[in-house]
Amino acid sequence: MRLAFVGPPGVGKGTQAQRLAERRGIPKISTGDVLRDAVRRGTPLGIKAKTFMDSGSLVPDDVVIGMLEERLRADDTRKGYLLDGFPRTIRQAQALETILTGRGERLDAVVAFEIAQDVVVARLSGRRGCGACGRVYHVQADPSPAGSRGLRRTADPARR
Q1: Residue 57 structural domain
Q2: Do 132 and 74 belong to one domain?
């Protein structure tokens, strides 16, 4: 099974992707996780991405696409995968199509999540990120077991 979940930040893509990926025994691939992992490992693309992340800029499509392509080469993707929040742009969608065609694959489905603007504002304004582990909590829906100590406000985790 090869799926892509797309939609605005705060709509629930990550939560639902994690649940389905665990049920199906396939990896959930989020560009934010891929970026942070590449930076942590010091890969060439990770080093390049870190310069953008450190300046507070979005990582350019070519870097994100390169990292995703590397991630899709991992052995755990052979049975399938769930792309969480990718593609975000038309260029990313076109690149994904090229990557999949080169692999002799195609997505089984793309699930587009929608949400009312006032709901997404409420969800995002309640997000907090743990500085130590990177986990994202919500002050009401999923509070940190340690309370608010050590948590910082965060927007889209993929943009951190």
Answers
A1: 2-112
A2: no
DSSP 17-73: HHHHHHHHT--EEEHHHHHHHHHHHT-HHHHHHHHHHHTTPPPPHHHHHHHHHHHHT
> Is the preceding peptide bond at 87 cis, omega within 30 degrees of 0?
yes
Residue 145 falls inside a structural domain: yes
| Cβ within 8 Å of residue 61, ≥6 positions away | 89, 91, 92, 95
Mean confidence (pLDDT) of the chain: 86
> What is the bridge-based pairing of β-strands 28-30 and 2-6?
unpaired
Q: Percent of the chain at pLDDT above 70?
A: 89
pLDDT tens-place string over residues 124-134: 877 777 777 77
Q: How far is CA 7 from CA 14, 23, 62, 145, in A?
A: 10, 22, 21, 28
Beta strands at 127-130 and 136-138: parallel, antiparallel or unpaired: antiparallel
145 and 71 in a common domain: no
CA distances (Å), 38 to each of 9, 29, 74, 100, 157, in order? Answer: 22, 13, 13, 21, 15
Q: Could you report the per-residue pLDDT of 84-96, keeping only the tens digit for each?
A: 999 999 999 999 9
Q: How many domains does the chain have?
A: 2
